[in-house]
Design a protein that fits this description.
homotetramer, 304 residues, alpha+beta, Beta-lactamase, five-stranded antiparallel sheet, 13 helices, 10 strands, globular
């Protein structure tokens, strides 16, 4: 068997002193003070072994990675009805996500652009009795770890500065694609994004996406077909307008967040998480992208 | 001298029984119940004579026509500094005004598209001690008529349904082009649009735009150069994406509102207002456009 | 009466030594060698007097100014049928004229953007027996000057480098909005743009647009209504995406060309032409725009 | 082992009498007469077995499927230099591919939209001594079949009607992203698209993409890394603006053409081709998409 510990150690060694680490996101004030030198990797094989290096146990704001959890929960509730309210196509567009929403009459391109994730949040708060508590509980169960929590000051920070998300939610509302109040949907959405997890917890929580819908606690949560579909969306839409680049360079379904985290997976084989807070110009973790590219190059493990 | 009363009478006769009167705006619930058969014309010559026919004394919601008053007030306060925050070019685009705002980094195309008018509203509430009272007072003074008022239920109606304007205001805020709180700016903006005036009052209030900035009360309110510039913006941007059509068919600076009103003017000669609530597909009064085209055709009075 | 000679002399004096004269167009190789210090003004009153200063008798490439001649000829042939194949709205868009054409299914926004002028050229070659000879003859008659000619090397220069126009013509063809062969239409179009005229000739040729359709030779060529409509299009669309700015600053219908010429007019009053080859970033003559703004400011003669 | 013959037989049975088979492409006149009832499937396992059903030996126009061959040839010549002239991101946009090209200054989104494929064609004719002969030879070698040929009348048909491709090529030329003459590049491009192959030949020719770059004749033609990258582009960009949908429903890298063919593959496992000429509204074979979805559902073989 491959010496995975050696592989991730060598990747970590190669990149930990890299000077150009990208820029820590500053549009959410609470996130702007994170030390850009944080760098962790956590790898979990489906067969059970785990490997880690660096800051793999330091919690960080998972941000857009939470959209995968929310999608899986909504998909479970609504099945294919979900796709009446949003699409599964890559957005392709870096700069004008509201433009696309206008052109397409309020139907978001996919569940991972902000407008799509806001529609998912709307669906969840219509379904859940205690949306924030229930969602947190779901993530804790997936990760099999009850210590996971919202960071309230990050949620508050987004609430007072996230004007672009207010614009998107109001535009959705103007097209009739939001059932609940803008304030309620965004309160949930900002909390969802403000969950803090470390690389180990993220890897555990994504286990089910590499394992046909069966989570770490051995509960079947989604059908194999639904899992396959979520993985497809991660591959085509998981990295903003750099999704093609990630598929091209890394070749794994995955999801990034502006907190600097990335989770990626090879079905039946492994889940891997990285964290490095500095972002490239497209908003994905610069060192994380490089680490995952190195990982699939060294191990020759990719879906392609 | 031309027999203007005869001209407007014959136009009114020709159009008052027209079956296809357009559709009354229904996106603001409070406006949807207006009788589409209302139809009035009021003409005021700079020389002092007045002519009217039909429902020229029935008040209606002036809606976007108010943007001309707001622009003139802001232009007076800020002079050419105004153009640091918005432009004077036609938008050309029917369907994607937020798209343009994204493409152009939060600088609205002109003061008459909603995003531009929201920037003007933001400027006014930064300048005025009692924004709503002071603005209403300004309009009353221009019209020389203290009976003019806000329709509070129209303002409230827009406040609870104007999600597209919330989207625009939040997008402006995300680009740093809004100083005040979204809620405060839109409260002012929805009130501004909810002023009720009749054709006579509108004609009186627009007198200064045909008279080098001197209003009916003989007060010089803007410089000749500023008035010329506002007239130019009315001509190029006053009719949404039908501005070219209005210039082409009518050939006068003017402004329409979704309440069904239109005001147009020939500098040094006259101001004319029409009201007919049914709108054409571009959102301008269908019968009003036809009446004004007939007026300039019959009188051969246009700027071209 | 105003001392017009003094007015244009003082404008010429103020601007002739201006250091920042804009950049001479270099995308048409043949035009790139013109001396940026050329600067002429020619003013013709409807009453008959003429005033000139500077290089008002040096011929230059009229380029897009020719679109007004072509439009007037096509309008005369086809009347309002013309508007089945193109619109009269400002394009508003600096950068993506083909985008608009795609969004609007091959119907150009107006006759002065390139795609619209190409449709007009297509109409003319379907109508004319000897398109190039007949068109040149028409311009000579309007100007009452048989010395006007095509510059063949400029036409050839555009033919070998005008890829964007080939793109537009082929896109029109793909939408079925071009009757003739792309090569034939563009050969005519490039010749039309390659006519050389001086300020005096341009002013003479535009006389009919300020005189209800009656040209210098006292022939009624278009109806008053058609002339009014062409003037409206000049005002709203005559200056690319700076049309609003020109209306705002100058307040006259007019048309510019990348050869550095501008013609503008006040109906019933005057026609004025300027030539200064350096362009501002929007593609309009920098000094010419300033000269015309100064002219309307000093004389207070504008349509607004 | 799975009974693959049974699987494809049952899929063929289920779909061969389906009434709604989509519309045969009519924009290329030569293709419009194909019988919509043609339907073939050919499956080749990397292990060597082959399975087929229906019209798997009837040649058809491969059209856009040829773009994968062209990309692989150009990638081999230029390596990663290729990506200086085009990108690898999904285009996301159904209707305005020239718009995107304008917005992105002449850099096509990916090698599978027409503008990107035209850039690839330009690269190939700069590299090849006898472009058309050499390219055909390359395809024959990949398929190990010298009977493959261009259909000259299809190539001629596109040449006289492919105005949109002329528009794209001229736009690329205007941005300096085309080295050769538009006519030469498109002559090559229209021939490339006019190659005729049957399902068996296509499956054979794609063998190397499922086999780390080693073709049927056991020649290593591209590196494993290059093959992985081409597969990634097929997955994210291979089905126009339905790429997300194909990834979601089918979950295999693949490429479709308007001739009704689709090829898809699972690395290390198999290549499968389908042919059914009727297209869905997005331009992909309607029955082919359904057949491939059924295949991955029944066999549970997908990359996700």
């Amino acid at each position: 068997m491959m010496d995975f510990q050696h592989v991730i150690n060598s990747i970590h060694d190669d990149l930990k002193h890299e000077v150009n680490r990208g820029l820590v996101a500053n549009y959410i004030p609470e996130l702007s003070h994170i030390d850009a030198n944080n760098f962790g990797i956590y790898l979990k094989l489906i067969s059970g072994e785990n490997f880690s290096v660096g800051h793999s146990n330091t919690p960080f704001s998972i941000q857009s990675i939470s959209k995968v959890f929310a999608l899986s929960m909504a998909f479970n509730f609504k099945g294919d009805q979900l796709w009446q309210r949003l699409d599964v196509e890559p957005s392709g567009d870096p700069f004008n996500h509201l433009s696309l929403l206008e052109l397409e009459n309020g139907i978001p391109r996919n569940p991972f652009i902000n407008s799509g994730a806001i529609v998912i949040a709307d669906i969840l708060i219509s379904q859940l009795d205690n949306p924030k508590a229930d969602f947190l509980n779901y993530v804790r169960e997936l990760a099999n770890d009850n210590s996971i929590n919202y960071n309230e000051s990050v949620a508050t920070s987004e609430k007072t500065t996230g004007f672009n998300n207010y614009a998107a939610a109001n535009l959705l509302k103007s097209y009739g694609n939001l059932e609940n109040k803008v304030e309620d949907v965004l309160d949930f959405y900002f909390h969802q994004c403000a969950i803090e997890m470390n690389c180990e917890q993220l890897t555990s929580a994504f286990f089910m996406f590499a394992n046909h819908g069966v989570c770490l606690q051995n509960i079947k949560r989604l059908s194999s077909s639904q899992i396959k579909r979520i993985n497809a969306i991660m591959l085509t839409c998981g990295f903003y307008d750099e999704a093609g680049e990630f598929a091209f360079e890394v070749g794994l379904p995955g999801k990034s967040g502006v907190g600097g985290g990335i989770v990626a997976l090879l079905p039946n084989q492994f889940v891997i998480s990285t964290w490095s807070p500095g972002l490239n110009p497209k908003g994905n973790s610069k060192i994380g992208m490089q680490a995952l590219e190195a990982f699939t190059t060294k191990t020759k493990l990719s879906i392609f």
